[in-house]
Amino acid sequence: MTEEYKAKVFKSGNSVALRLPKALGIAEGDDIVIAPHADGSFTFWKEDDGLKVLMGLYGSFSPGFMSEGRGDIEQEERDWSPRKPKGKAA
């Protein structure tokens, strides 16, 4: 999609809403995923297109991405023993 669209945010009940142009191909009832970014921008896509979006990211990372690994991630040991249901005496 090469066109740029502008839209206004408006209040709808206790929420805000964004009216999107029909030309974007989003239909009433479509489930949308919205991903906020650190710079305050957002990316959105149809939930059904998630795999296509993920595959589109392939190759978009810089060559040095994670070249030093993820770093140390300390995690506590977890208790995996079965727990008794709440409200029932033992």
UniProtKB/TrEMBL annotation:
Record region (Disordered): 67-90
Basic and acidic residues bias: start-end ranges: 69-82
SUPFAM superfamilies: AbrB/MazE/MraZ-like
Protein name: AbrB family transcriptional regulator
Native source organism of the sequence: Sphingobium fluviale
Taxonomy of the source species: Bacteria, Pseudomonadati, Pseudomonadota, Alphaproteobacteria, Sphingomonadales
